[in-house]
Design goal:
This protein has 227 residues and is of the alpha/beta class. It is 41% helix and 21% strand. It folds into two domains: 4-121, Response regulator (Rossmann fold), CATH 3.40.50; 131-223, Winged helix-like DNA-binding domain superfamily/Winged helix DNA-binding domain (Arc Repressor Mutant, subunit A), CATH 1.10.10.10. Helix 1 crosses helix 5 (106-121), helix 2 runs parallel beside helix 3 (61-69) and helix 6 (156-167) crosses helix 8.
């Protein structure tokens, strides 16, 4: 069955370009011209991925992402004509899985979409057993993470990054290592994108009274042996 992608942008010409590029790859495309229509479309039938423009009238992409994240883990790939780093960081910290800045090539967009879908749906290696560190537990088979009795709502990208860190507690992973292992199949990841995802994971842990991930300045990140 073809994967369904919801394309949300107030520019019909851009939606046509995106629809054509993704349809050629076999995806089923649904379109929404504004934020309210996007929310309604997700409520009616949740897509496999949302391509979401940041700058839209009335209800912008940031608010749409916030509302979607209140009810779903569906992967979100942001589009924006803005080049400011703050927009990319804000979008990722709200739960976006990736970010493409306009103008972009259809080929790049298709590559990003495929990579995000692969991360969100790829079955974890069955040889990996459940990872336990203190009362933090990561189950690669059910793709769930618990801090005590609280389940953390992680995106697919956040889950993979945490899985890498938990594999060897105390080991420092450089940004390059995390970008290679946590964003498998993606070749457009920046250090700031990685930092945003790590920051979001840490916030979710801190909301439960824990801070198991440590920044090693000038080197990278590691999972504390005793979170």
């Amino acid at each position: 069955m073809a994967r369904r992608i919801l394309v949300v942008d107030d520019d019909p010409r851009l939606r046509e370009v995106v629809r054509y590029a993704l349809a050629r790859e076999g995806f089923e495309i649904e379109e929404a011209g504004d934020g309210h229509a996007a929310i309604a479309a997700c409520d009616a039938r949740l897509p496999d991925l949302v391509v979401l423009d940041v700058v839209m009238p009335e209800l912008d992409g940031i608010e749409v992402c916030r509302r979607i994240r209140q009810r779903s883990k569906v992967p979100i790939l942001f589009l924006s004509s803005r080049g400011e780093e703050v927009d990319r960081v804000l979008g990722l910290e709200l739960g976006g899985d990736d970010y493409v800045t306009k103008p972009f090539s259809p080929r790049e967009l298709v590559s990003r979409v495929k990579a995000v879908l692969r991360r969100s749906s790829e079955e974890p290696d069955a040889s990996h057993s459940t990872l336990q560190l203190g009362d933090v537990r990561l189950d690669p088979h059910e793709v769930r993470v618990f801090a005590g009795r609280t389940e953390l709502e992680l995106t697919a990208t956040e889950f993979r990054l945490l899985q890498v860190l938990m594999t060897k507690p105390g080991r420092v992973y450089t940004r390059d290592e995390l970008m290679t292992r946590g964003y498998e199949g993606t070749h457009f990841v920046s250090g700031r994108t990685l930092d945003s995802h790590i920051r979001r994971i840490r916030k979710k842990f801190k909301d439960t009274g824990r801070d198991p991930i440590e920044t090693v300045h000038g080197m990278g990140f590691r999972m504390r042996k005793e979170p």
